């Protein structure tokens, strides 16, 4: 099932299919290891519901829901 | 001398290795991007000394933040003899991503596999010989923290530096190989160094590269058109990033063997459960912040006296013993560690002051020379010196927050709240550092990617009351509490700190609606694992700061104190006179009216101008504000009947403030002015360097106007509460104007789009 990373709930796991968006932000998302095929676990939401904390490639990354919305995932 | 550069991801132990190599006092931190400028040191333990440069931490050679640009340009332009790429073995995949880019440069590379001890502890195994074969460059296992394997690493680097190395790319076997080969050859033909690196960056569409090599870009564009129907549809940027990570996962999953142990919660996870808790996360942050200030400035530790009434003044026969006991315990209760440090230093300073005064008079110096030494130089310097241990203690606590990795979590939990005002949580990290000192905080804004965010952050960093402003707050709140029973000096200080933070947030919100319109900067950031701060790195922080403050005390502060003393003791005809006939009196009286709206102007009578003079000297360095009071106190005290200087500590300053007859409202406004105005020459110069050219005058104007008008508003509202309505009405008009203007601008844009 396809789903945006921003729509994931706590503890949900998936594999990156593709990344939309453009420019430097997209580039940064790639650089941080969020590329097609990477497995991502949504660990938690910040106290105010945004940003989110994910585990990707063995480390913890935080990004906002608006940025996570660029990442299309296949739910595991 | 050979030159080696240390490159690696933020938080991979790079600076720890740098310290181990050079024994230098570089700053180590535990949130991504703490090395904000390159640092240089010399490694002397090898056969020949080598200069070692510590570059800022980077995730990629496609620069995203200004500090990443510094790192990239260093390797490209300064041509180090060898790049030592530190790789965090516990986080292999993302770290090797940078390695694959470094390898494309024509420079010898050695990989230092750091934190191998942590990998083994987890029960995992890493085959470094295999990694070496795959990468084609030497790999050395090290533990920077324990200093293991560093000699071997440097031997590898020496050897590698002897030979030239040509760049190689993991993309050589991909569908891009022909394109890259063609562009590389063309670039090499033009005599450009690192041709392969530039070819890859060109294919990625890196803005600077496209500008620099327009001809080769045409080759790239033609290629992009060809692959329109393929998987990435000519999106080479995505294709390259993908190819790098695919290469890494394909080859290196074999290198790393994970233990069969099930994933248990690490200590870091447990800490995070509490510290970033959905409900308790934010209150906990506020408690931690308050705790830090309480431990530094609290006169009544844990409010034991307020609750249990345990305090009393210890009276023995000996005066010196009495004041020594009062260092730790008095009628106010048990002192906090910060206050103990202050009292101790003050105790030492007053003993030294007596010694100096006796020495000078015993030497038979003239009256003016005695005055110069005692009231001019020593009064000013000791006023600053006695605060140094307390400020260092504050710095220590902030450094612990920083090194432990908590700062990154603060950014995480507060991002949502900050976004409302137009800032990302990331920008909050340099701001909190501003509580220590504005200079490193301003330098730290280089870790912010967005230019507008960087400018705004630089402008409001001084609103986070720094260590040098803390004495002003302590003295003013002490004076107010002394006048009015029932006011708690501690809480008042904390309220003023909060006021500064509120002003910062408010200023950003206003700038976002006026001069700095735009989207909030993106927030994509690593959350490093927590670890206990290293004792050595904490000491490095403190030592740096201590040097800074002591240097300042004996240069700027001495000079300013001497000038103030001279102006307050001499008349225009160079004769030594009483203060009411001095040059300073005339100057003060002349400019005093400017400060009338803020409550410390003409309404104060004959000595009101001391506040004006203190505020003006404070523009040079904030320590000057208090040292000016110390220098002027004896001269003015001599003219006031029943003057009691309170003997030690901030006593003379408090007494002077009372003697001038300033109201508490005026005192608060005075503090607010000092908190919000030009921070000091050092910080202003740093901010100037960190913001784009031409913006600095607006920044100075912003500081001057904000401080003047806010202090005025504070004075008015505190003195006559009903003026709040007038000010609120004015503010409402202003907001309405901004909203209207914003709508008109939006409308204009829409109409423009329709045409």
Structure description:
With 76 residues, chain A is of the alpha+beta class. Chain A has one domain: SH3 type barrels (Roll), CATH 2.30.30. In chain A, 17% of the residues lie in helices and 42% in strands. Chain A has a six-stranded antiparallel sheet with strand order 1-6-2-3-4-5. In chain A, a hairpin with a 2-residue loop joins strand 4 and strand 5. Chain A starts with a strand and ends with a strand. The mean pLDDT of chain A is 91. By secondary structure, chain B is mainly alpha-helical. Among the domains of chain B are: 163 residues, P-loop containing nucleotide triphosphate hydrolases (Rossmann fold); 87 residues, Helix Hairpins (Orthogonal Bundle); 36 residues. Helices cover 60% and strands 6% of the residues of chain B. Chain B is built from 33 helices and eleven strands. Chain B is globular, with a radius of gyration of 30 Å.
CATH class of chain A: Mainly Beta
CATH topology description of the domain at 2-164 in chain B: Rossmann fold
Question: In terms of per-residue confidence, which ranges of chain B show pLDDT below 50 for 5 or more consecutive residues?
Answer: none
Radius of gyration of chain B, Cα only, in angstroms?
30 Å
Largest interface (C-beta under 8 Å): A-B, 33 and 39 residues
Number of strands of chain B: 11
Helix content of chain B: 55-70%
Give the CATH architecture of the domain at 2-164 in chain B.
3-Layer(aba) Sandwich
Distance linking N and C termini of chain A: 8 Å
State the oligomer: heterodimer
Mean pLDDT of chain A: 91
Integer tally of domains of chain A: 1
Order of helices and strands of chain A: EEHEEEHE
CATH topology of chain A: SH3 type barrels
Morphology of chain A:
globular
Derived from helix and strand composition plus strand pairing, the structural class of chain B reads mainly alpha
Please give the CATH architecture of chain A.
Roll
Structural class of chain A: alpha+beta
Q: How far is it from the N-terminal to the C-terminal residue of chain B, by CA?
A: 64 Å
Number of helices of chain B: 33
Number of helices of chain A: 2
């Amino acid at each position: 099932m396809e789903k945006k990373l921003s729509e994931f709930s706590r503890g949900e796991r998936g594999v990156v299919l593709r990344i939309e968006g453009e420019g430097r932000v997209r580039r940064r998302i790639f650089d941080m290891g969020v590329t097609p095929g990477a497995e991502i676990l949504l660990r938690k939401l910040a106290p105010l519901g945004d940003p989110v904390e994910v585990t990707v490639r063995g480390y913890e990354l935080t990004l906002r829901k608006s940025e996570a919305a660029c990442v299309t995932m296949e739910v595991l | 001398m050979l030159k080696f550069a240390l490159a690696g991801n933020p938080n991979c132990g790079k600076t720890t290795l740098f310290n181990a190599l050079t024994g230098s006092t570089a700053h180590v931190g535990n949130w991504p991007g703490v090395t904000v400028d390159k640092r240089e040191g010399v490694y002397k333990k090898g056969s020949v000394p080598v200069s070692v440069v510590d570059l800022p931490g980077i995730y990629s050679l496609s620069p995203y933040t200004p500090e990443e640009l510094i790192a990239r340009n260093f390797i490209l332009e300064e041509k180090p003899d060898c790049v030592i790429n530190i790789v965090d073995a516990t986080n292999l995949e993302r770290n090797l991503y940078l390695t694959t880019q470094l390898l494309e440069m024509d420079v010898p590379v050695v990989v230092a596999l750091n934190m191998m001890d942590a990998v083994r502890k987890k029960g995992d195994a890493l085959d470094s010989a295999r990694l070496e074969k795959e990468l084609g460059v030497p790999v050395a296992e090290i533990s920077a923290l324990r200093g293991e394997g560093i000699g071997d690493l440097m031997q590898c680097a020496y050897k590698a530096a002897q030979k030239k190395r040509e760049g190689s790319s993991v993309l050589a076997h991909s569908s891009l190989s022909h394109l890259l080969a063609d562009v590389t050859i063309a670039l090499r033909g033009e005599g450009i160094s690192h041709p392969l690196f530039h070819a890859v960056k060109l294919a990625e569409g890196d803005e600077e590269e496209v500008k620099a090599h327009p001809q080769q870009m045409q080759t790239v564009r033609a290629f992009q058109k060809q692959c329109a129907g393929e998987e990435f549809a000519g999106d080479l940027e995505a294709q390259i990033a993908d190819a790098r990570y695919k290469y890494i996962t394909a080859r290196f999953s074999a290198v790393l063997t994970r233990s069969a142990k099930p994933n248990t919660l690490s200590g870091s996870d447990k800490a995070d459960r509490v510290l970033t808790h959905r409900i308790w996360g934010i209150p906990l942050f506020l408690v931690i912040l308050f705790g830090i200030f309480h431990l530094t400035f609290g006169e009544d530790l844990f409010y034991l006296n307020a609750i249990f009434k345990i305090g009393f003044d210890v009276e023995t026969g000996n005066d010196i013993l009495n004041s020594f006991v009062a260092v730790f315990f008095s009628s106010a209760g048990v002192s906090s560690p910060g206050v103990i440090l202050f009292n101790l230093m003050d105790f030492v300073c007053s003993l030294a002051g007596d010694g100096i005064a006796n020495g000078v008079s015993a030497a038979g110096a003239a009256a003016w020379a005695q005055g110069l030494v005692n009231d001019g130089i020593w009064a000013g310097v000791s006023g600053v010196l006695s605060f140094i241990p307390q400020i260092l203690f504050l710095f220590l606590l902030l450094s612990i927050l920083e090194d432990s990795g908590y700062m990154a979590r603060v950014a995480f939990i507060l991002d949502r709240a900050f976004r409302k005002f137009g800032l990302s949580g990331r920008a909050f990290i340099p701001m909190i550092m501003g509580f220590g000192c504005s200079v490193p905080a301003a330098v730290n804004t280089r870790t912010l990617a967005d230019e507008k965010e960087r400018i705004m952050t630089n402008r409001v960093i001084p609103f986070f009351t720094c260590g040098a402003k803390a004495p002003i707050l302590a003295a003013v709140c002490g004076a107010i509490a002394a006048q009015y029973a029932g006011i708690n000096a501690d809480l008042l200080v904390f309220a003023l700190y909060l006021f500064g933070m509120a002003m910062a947030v408010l200023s950003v919100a206003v700038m976002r609606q006026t001069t700095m319109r735009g989207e909030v900067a993106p927030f994509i950031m690593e959350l490093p694992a927590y670890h206990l701060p290293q004792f050595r790195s904490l000491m490095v922080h403190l030592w740096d700061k201590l040097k800074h403050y002591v240097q300042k005390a004996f240069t700027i502060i001495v000079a300013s104190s001497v000038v103030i003393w001279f102006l307050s003791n001499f008349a225009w005809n160079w004769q030594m006179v009483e203060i009411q006939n001095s040059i300073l009196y005339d100057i003060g009286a002349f400019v005093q009216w400017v400060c009338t709206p803020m409550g410390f102007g003409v309404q104060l009578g004959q000595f009101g101008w001391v506040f004006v003079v203190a505020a003006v000297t404070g523009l040079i360095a904030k320590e000057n504000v208090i040292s000016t009071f110390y220098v002027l106190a004896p001269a003015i005290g001599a003219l006031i009947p029943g003057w009691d200087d309170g003997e030690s500590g901030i006593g003379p300053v408090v007494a002077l403030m009372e003697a001038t007859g300033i109201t508490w409202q005026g005192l608060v406004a005075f503090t607010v002015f000092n908190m919000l105005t030009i921070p000091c020459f050092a910080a202003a110069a740093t901010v100037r360097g960190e913001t784009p050219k031409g913006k600095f005058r607006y920044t100075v104007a912003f500081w001057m106007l904000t401080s003047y008008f806010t202090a005025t508003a504070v004075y008015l509202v505190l003195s006559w509460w009903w003026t709040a309505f007038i000010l609120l009405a004015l503010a409402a008009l202003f907001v309405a104007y901004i909203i209207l203007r914003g709508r008109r601008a939006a409308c204009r844009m829409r109409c423009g789009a329709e045409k």
